[in-house]
Amino acid sequence: MNITKRCAAEAIGTFWLVFGGCGSAVLAAAFYTQANQIPINLGIGLLGVSFAFGLTVMTMAYAIGHISGCHLNPAVTIGLCVAKRFPSKDVVAYIIAQVVGALLGSLTLYFIL
Questions:
Q1: What is the dihedral of CA 89, 92, 96, 101, to 10 degrees?
Q2: Span 77-97, mean pLDDT?
Q3: What percent of the chain has pLDDT above 90?
Q4: C-alpha to C-alpha distance for 108 and 88, rounded to whole angstroms
């Protein structure tokens, strides 16, 4: 598969990870604290946010894993390159795609908020 399709898949996957995972943390896990020992309302809670991150990674692994490998994170891409399991010529393109996807996901959340 050509690099353009793989990078597009990485950008979409990283967008979904930021939008779904960080979106659940920002929008649904509201922490309310008060000085007088009232229980903290966690919305979906920390477990719910953890599930949201896990489910977004799982859905993208099934959706784009066969296209791009579903790295979704520059650290994963660099780690795979260092371990010689990913070609170094594609690292920069993957990282750019992941950063673009993350920026689009965070901008979408910003406009929703």
A1: 60
A2: 97
A3: 76
A4: 31
